[in-house]
Specification:
By secondary structure, the protein is α/β, with parallel strands linked by helices. It contains 9 helices and 11 strands. It has 2 domains: 131 residues, Response regulator (Rossmann fold), CATH 3.40.50; 127 residues, Response regulator (Rossmann fold), CATH 3.40.50.2300. It has a 6-stranded mixed beta sheet with strand order 7-6-8-9-10-11, with helices on both faces.
Length: 287
């Protein structure tokens, strides 16, 4: 099926959430990789936002009825996620970003979130941090749960404990969670954030509270972006190649639309990019 002559068109629905809007730096980088790979191959992306998952499924139904797209990319998977099944009922080919190949659907191999969190914590613990906080994204997402489980397991294995507060990927929630983490006498000396927007907001809160970064408090963001590089100080990040992930997603969409089994790709490599927001843990004097 094609909707514009011989030009293939692929759908991506981003659900409006309580944060700062669906087109976060992560999705901007992902889309750049998708479009860069699709354009010379005669493909394009139909990007639409929906109010919630029910509205998203309704969009898939309309796209299938009107033959508007050749396949869709489904992201931000949750427990009991029924979107792929809804697409299958409508005969709409689907590719899952970060799903399990055992589900029997085309999957783009995203990285291991649990292992990535362990890399982040090994780095901070190696700097001497013993009280570590985390500001996570919504717990309904499978990738959030994998990071949370790994966070607690890694700290437990090191004889440490940490506090996790939930945000919505938006700046307001990042700031509020940071204030809560820093309010007690046993405040963390390092905080890990699940995205760049919340981390930049946390940096602002630290400044308001008179805490020096990284002398008093280290901040580590998830996924690199211009926001991280342009912050003052620049934010250290848990980095993967999101642009390359977009290109792999585009390749899987093209294969799926052509009736081919997507070629296995490599999961993005994860590393900590050290910048100015992380340093050795401060020496804490008992009161």
């Amino acid at each position: 099926m094609t909707s514009d002559g011989d030009r293939l068109r692929f759908g991506l629905v981003l659900t409006e959430g309580p944060g700062d809007g669906p087109l976060t730096p992560f999705y901007r980088d992902l889309l750049a990789g998708v479009e860069e790979h699709l354009d010379p191959r005669g493909g394009a992306v139909l990007l639409v936002t929906a109010d919630d998952r029910a509205a998203e499924v309704a969009l898939y139904r309309r796209w299938a009825d009107q033959r508007l797209v050749d396949a869709v990319l489904v992201t931000d998977l949750t427990d009991g996620d029924d979107r792929a099944a809804a697409c299958a009922r409508e005969g709409l080919p689907v590719v899952l970003l970060g799903g399990d190949p055992a589900w029997g659907l085309p999957v783009v191999d995203d990285y291991d979130n649990g292992a990535a969190m362990r890399i982040a914590l090994d780095y901070l613990i190696g700097l001497g941090h013993r009280r570590i906080g985390r500001v996570c994204g919504p717990e309904r997402f499978l990738h959030t749960r994998a990071r949370t489980a790994s966070f607690h397991r890694a700290l437990r294995d090191s004889g440490l404990t940490g506090t996790v507060l939930t945000g919505d990927y938006g700046a307001a929630s990042g700031a509020a969670a940071t204030r809560s983490l820093l309010a007690g006498d046993d405040r963390p000396t390092a905080i890990v954030y699940d995205n760049d927007v919340m981390a930049v907001a946390g940096l602002g809160v630290a400044a308001e509270l008179g805490l020096r970064v990284p002398e008093d408090l280290s901040l580590l963001a998830w996924d690199d972006s211009d926001l991280c590089r342009l912050a003052e100080p620049a934010l250290s990040v848990v980095s993967r190649d999101v642009h390359d992930l977009g290109a792999a997603s585009a390749a899987a969409l093209l294969d799926t639309a052509a009736g081919r089994v997507p070629r296995p790709g490599r999961a993005p490599q994860v590393r900590v990019v050290v910048r100015g927001s992380t340093g050795a843990a401060p020496v804490l004097v008992a009161g």
